[in-house]
TrEMBL record:
The record marks 192 as: Important for substrate specificity. It comes from Cytobacillus depressus. It catalyses: L-homoserine + acetyl-CoA = O-acetyl-L-homoserine + CoA. Pathway: Amino-acid biosynthesis; L-methionine biosynthesis via de novo pathway; O-acetyl-L-homoserine from L-homoserine: step 1/1. This is Homoserine O-acetyltransferase.
């Protein structure tokens, strides 16, 4: 089934080349099915890349999905053209009267900043509070996940002595959870962050459920309130080259950085990395859309 996106969105061409089913408004009108309305708060600097990564996964299910992109009103993006933002993005003030079946809050490369020092933190807190009454299930990714853990559950992040970057093996801690239905006993996923959370605080929290973790990378997938809030500390949506691009960017900045672990063949940054997590990325997003959004959201919100 298709994903409905604006006709002129740059990611459309990328997705169509990969045989991802997309449609525009005209074709969507002929679909006699209740579409899911998904809101994406895109906090990543290179927004067009993140759009393609997320839409690729959201568009590979038997459900019709209507996508709306949200930007912060209190922060001006420096890496995405104002024309692109004006054409495809809206602000919270313009959508807060609506209810959405699902929402994604992305990561942001600001994890070394205290939450209270982020210039859009107050706006983000208002949005996260709003999701509790206006969104069936919200998926928080990387820094977005840490922000949710801090705001909703009081779990603070801490700075790592070395950046957690690479592709790590994860184990399942709760096989009964529908989000992990069909997952292998162990699976791979990329991480890219300078902060982490203490796994003991997650395990001891009365509301949080630890669904998956890695011995090297720490807590990975967490949920709360029957999946109304889902937090993922890594980046299953990443493409094969994303970590390599980040590594080259950090080298150009003069940072003392190590190559991503378990990523480059033979740990050689000159070799092409492989995407070894794609199937589980598709499975996680499919499970989320089906079990936590489609199966839980009312047909008529009113």
């Amino acid at each position: 089934m298709p994903i409905k996106i604006p006709r002129l969105l740059p990611a459309r061409e990328i997705l169509e080349e990969e045989n991802i089913f997309v449609m525009d408004d005209d074709r969507a009108l002929t679909q006699d099915i209740r579409p899911l309305n998904i809101l994406i708060l895109n906090l990543m600097p290179e927004k067009e890349k993140t759009e393609a990564q997320l839409l690729r996964l959201l568009g590979n299910t038997p459900l019709q999905v209507n996508i709306s992109f949200l930007k912060t009103a209190t922060h001006e993006s420096k890496n995405t053209s104002p024309l692109h933002l004006e054409q495809f993005y809206t602000t919270f003030a313009e959508v807060k009267h609506r209810k959405f079946d699902g929402m994604i809050i992305t990561g942001a490369p600001i994890e070394l900043l205290p939450f209270e020092k982020v210039d859009y933190w107050e706006e983000l807190k208002e949005i996260m509070d709003w999701t509790k009454s206006h969104v069936t299930s919200t998926l928080h990714i990387c820094w977005g996940g840490q922000a949710a853990l801090f705001h909703h559950f009081g779990i603070q992040k801490y700075e790592l002595t070395r950046k957690c970057s690479g592709v790590f093996t994860h184990q399942i801690h709760d096989r009964s959870e529908k989000l992990l239905r069909g997952f292998d006993d162990s699976f791979l996923a990329p991480h890219s962050r300078n902060t982490d959370i203490f796994i003991e605080k997650v395990k001891n929290h009365p509301t949080l459920k630890l669904l998956s973790a890695s011995e090297e990378a720490g807590p990975f997938i967490l949920s709360a309130n029957n999946g109304k809030q889902i937090m993922i500390t890594g980046h299953l949506e990443y493409e094969a080259e994303t970590l390599a691009e980040e590594y080259k960017r950090d080298i150009q900045k003069g940072l003392d950085i190590h190559p991503p672990k378990h990523y480059f063949p033979n740990n050689d940054p000159t070799k092409q990395p492989l995407n070894r997590w794609r199937s589980h990325a598709h499975l996680l997003f499919s499970n989320w859309l089906n079990y936590y959004v489609y199966q839980e959201t009312p047909y008529e919100w009113d």
